[in-house]
Amino acid sequence: MRRSALICMAGLSLLSMRPGAVLAESQTETRAGLWDGLKASADRYLGRPYVWGAVGLKSFDCSGFVWRVLFENGILIKRTTARKLYMCLPKVSAPERQRPGNIVFFNSLKHCGIVAEPESFYHAETTNGTRLSRFTSYWRNRVSGYRALPG
User: Fold this and answer.
1) Dihedral (Cα; 40, 46, 49, 51), 10-degree rounding
2) pTM
3) How would you classify the pairing of strands 120-125 and 143-147?
4) N or C terminus of the chain with fewer C-beta within 10 Å?
5) In whole angstroms, what separates CA 92 from the centre of its chain?
6) Percent of the chain at pLDDT above 70?
7) Is the CB of residue 35 less than 8 Å from the CB of residue 100?
8) 119: DSSP letter
9) Residue ranges of the domains in the chain?
10) Tell me: the pLDDT tens digits for 50-77?
11) Quick count: other Cβ atoms within 10 Å of Cβ 94?
């Protein structure tokens, strides 16, 4: 367990800002620009089929979809399961949980997606593939937690 946490932390230390990002930008401007990129990447892959273990470009599983969207935006983390991703990412305070770009976890950390807005999230669903879903009571009752993007 300690070794996997260390590997995870080493993987997170490799993260970088989006290519071309200006270091002088305020944190808010940087976050907004990052969200624009994350949203564009997620939207590009909507409607792709679910395939267990897939990371794109033609098909995805839930954590592979999250990984691909982050990877395309310069956030370099090790490709892993939803459970391990939860353990590696920074905690989120209660008021910040449904902030666009945060990662949401469901079903005892067996499923994950990317918060799009307080009412919706992107994910790869086994029956419908990659999609934008609403936080209906079905999904709200299955939320296990939220994590922030590293950095």
Assistant:
1) 40
2) 0.82
3) unpaired
4) N
5) 13
6) 81
7) yes
8) T
9) 26-147
10) 999 999 999 999 999 999 999 999 999 9
11) 7
Q: Please check whether residue 150 is in contact with residue 77, taking contact to mean a CB–CB distance below 8 angstroms.
A: yes
Q: According to CATH, what is the number of the domain 26-147? A: 3.90.1720.10
- 77's CB contacts (< 8 A; 6+ apart) are 11, 12, 14, 15, 67, 70, 71, 85, 88, 150
Q: What does DSSP assign to residue 118?
A: T
Q: Which residues contact 129 (CB under 8 A, 6 or more apart)?
A: 47, 48, 49, 50, 59, 60
Distance CA 40, CA 108 (A): 28
Average pLDDT over the chain reads: 86
- Count other C-beta atoms under 10 Å from residue 57's C-beta: 10
